[in-house]
Amino acid sequence: MNDWPLMSSPIMPIVICLAYVYVVKIWGPQYMKDRPAYYKLKEALLPVDYSNSESALRMLRASYLFYILKFFDLLDTLFFVLRKKFSQITTLHVIHHGLIVVNTWPGARFVFGGHATFFIFLNTFVHTVMYFYYFMGAMGPRYRKFLGWKKHLTTLQITQFVVGLIHCFQLIFIECDFPVAYCWWIGGHQLLFLYLFIKFYKKSYVIQPKISSAPDKNGKNK
Which position has the higher pLDDT, 35 or 111? Predict the structure, then answer.
């Protein structure tokens, strides 16, 4: 069962549970303190606010910043090239970084805020964890002993796309004043990324470990 997501170690389930407790006991009550209760699910599906209100302009700036940050994400590939880490410039890496800018431009341009806000926060959180992992790896050999959770990082990325797809495609079944066409646009990209990340997960954590542990012709493990 070590090859099954969320089964090889209790670390990720513990992190998820701690995040759950934080959201429902601390962040959630504080967030809802001065807001009306959501009695219906469709009330939580927010349309885009195209007014000049302070909250609308704040979301516009946040969406634009999220879009601009995706250009900075391209730099990590350049660093791989400069360090001759060509093995890390995988098809998944190039497709993911190459499409994400095109993917987020319509959001920042036409549907900033509203229903799309959820994925912005979700993706930002995942990238914060991811770049923290890279940061620890760049601090030198003595910190690399703390990097044994790369598999869990990939699981987190896969979870991101599953949750994002559920959140995205619910507009197909629930009426909301939000462009459904954009949901198909962003949902299609998430399906592609989900497929690529699952393929990467199987190759890196399921197939390769079995090959490495298989005995060679002399009866010894490779």
Answer: 111
